[in-house]
Amino acid sequence: MIIRAQNISKVYNLNTEAEFFGIRDVSLEINKGELIAIVGPSGAGKTTLFNILGTLDTPTFGQIEIKNKNILSMDANEKSKLRNKVIGFIFQQFRLIPTLSALDNALLPLLVSEEGVDSPRKEKVIHLFETYGLKNQLTKYPSQLSGGEQQRVAIIRALVNDPDIILADEPTGSLDSKMSEYVFDTLQQIHKNNGKTVIYITHNLNLVEKANRVIKIEDGRVISDETCLC
Ligand SMILES: Nc1ncnc2c1ncn2[C@@H]1O[C@H](COP(=O)(O)OP(=O)(O)OP(=O)(O)O)[C@@H](O)[C@H]1O
Fold first, then answer.
1. Which terms in the GO cellular component ontology are assigned (predicted)?
2. Which of ligand 1's atoms lies nearest the C-alpha of 18?
3. Rounded-to-integer distance, Cα 44 and Cα 23, Å
4. CA triple 180-184-189, angle to 5 deg
5. What was the pLDDT predicted at 156?
6. Structure pTM?
7. Could you report the predicted ipTM of this complex, rounded to two decimals?
8. Ligand 1 contacts CB of residue 40 (under 6 A)
């Protein structure tokens, strides 16, 4: 098991009149290599859950373990190290830095890690650009790339530290249907070829169908959790 969440709740504005449960008593066990879609209406708690699974936020109640490590007992520095090594993030709005080339954007997690960028690591990233059809885009700036290409650069950035888990918050939410397929195809390849655990939030029914497991959230609770044996 790669992630275990036990009875986690996130309470916003705790002990005030505005107290609100973003998620309520959620328990999940996520195994290595799963391809999971998180679905549910707007305001259901998907991003709240995403942030907690990604160690970007702390639950108010409950326990969370990633790779058998208790996240709640870690300080900010330990969490940030674990996050950098174990989790790759992809967001709806790509979040590339406009003044850096596509290659430098993808290298950023290495630049801020203890290991830094060396030649073999740079070559590996260039190889990823080739694998994902971006070899002619290395020196381009984000504004010179299509939305789908920008998201693929963001996916490579999420992969450079070879994380076990990829967390994607509506990765195709800003793209038209053709570009959505183009980008999702990359996520599927990463899942299939590299054995990564991929967890994505989506409103796109075509992408829900492609998951091995679908977790539905409503009013902060998991209302169904189905694994497809296909
Ligand atoms: N910082 C906050 N303070 C108070 N309430 C919050 C905060 N963040 C989120 N919420 C509330 O928690 C609930 C869940 O929000 P969340 O962003 O997780 O939903 P979501 O399912 O991701 O929605 P969407 O699909 O619209 O992105 C919402 O009702 C939201 O208003």
1. membrane protein complex
2. 4
3. 8
4. 155
5. 95
6. 0.94
7. 0.96
8. yes
